[in-house]
Write a structure and sequence with these properties.
The protein has 78 residues and is mostly helical. It contains three helices and no strands. The chain is elongated. The longest helix has 29 residues. 86% of the residues lie in helices and 0% in strands.
C-alpha cells in the first residue's frame, strides 16, 4: 500500500509542477482599454500560430489540473 501511495504522491507532484509550468507559459490576457486596442492589432497582425499554441496550452492546463485534482482526491481517500 505504501508503494502505491508513494507512486501517486510522485505523480501528484509532477502534475502540480506541470500545471505551474503550463500556466506560466501561457500568454497573459490584456485587460482594459490598452489591452483592447493592442488585442485588435494582434488580431490583424498575428498569423494564428500564437493562438494555436495558447489553445494547446489551455487544453494541457485542463488535463494536468484534472489529473492533479483526481490524484489529490485519491490520496486523501487512501
Amino acid at each position: 500500500m505504501t508503494t502505491v501511495k508513494l507512486i501517486l504522491t510522485i505523480l501528484q507532484l509532477l502534475s502540480g509542477l506541470a500545471v505551474t509550468v503550463v500556466v506560466l507559459m501561457q500568454s497573459g490576457k490584456s485587460a482594459g482599454l490598452s489591452g483592447a486596442i493592442a488585442g485588435g492589432a494582434e488580431t490583424f497582425l498575428s498569423k494564428g500560430k500564437a493562438k494555436s499554441l495558447d489553445a494547446k496550452l489551455a487544453k494541457a492546463t485542463k488535463w494536468f489540473a484534472l489529473a492533479f485534482v483526481l490524484l489529490t482526491l485519491i490520496l486523501n481517500l487512501i
